[in-house]
Amino acid sequence: MTFSAVLHAEWIKIRSVRALEGALLAVFFATVAFSLLGSATIGHEDAGKPGFDPVHTSFFGLNFGQIAAICFGATAVTSEYGTGAIRTSLTAVPRRGLFYAAKLSVIGALACAVGLMTGLACFLGGQALIGAPGGGIGAPGGLRAAVGCALYLTLITLFAAGLAAVLRSGPAVMGTLIPFLLLVSFVIGDVNHGAGLADFLPDRAGQQVLLQHSTGSLGPWSGLAVTAGWAAVAVGAGWAALHRRDV
Hints:
The chain is mainly α.
């Protein structure tokens, strides 16, 4: 089969699982809703405090939306293992590299498309609610943050998808990755007083792109590159597992 044919097959498979559509909708609505809620609570007193970042405030809900992104990436890979359909898929596409690349391409493209809509909605809605202190749609770093939001959600989704190919269990991926991103980062950050090793964790590094002025040892794009490195390791481990195992 050609790569385009396998892509089409993966697209049909993902469309046939309703939970995946729900997960993508949850990425958008959870991120946007919590971001708008956070922006709406900003008053003039908050906006006048030192260190107030109107761009970052517009993406307050990203930590909630990334949970849905993890669920999407994990379920998109493990749904075939749960039903046993992976055997049929690998029989139809014996070239496992082609199968894996096509699956991740569809997963990544969908996550990026939803992430881009999410980033733009968060930024435009957040700036409208923050008002004059926010700087409006021309706020420095705003466009970069909106695009960065899409790239960050894509990388986290691929991180989850790669880990899912290793563990072959959606709950195992969610039980591993969600606490790692939401809890470990804060614990290590507190131990290191907010700097050092914590800067290179996937969530802290990648979310530098959402800041109007970067903090710590990484910039917006170098931070995303670190997150991409984490995702690449997970995707590589997933490929090794798929290549080595019978199914």
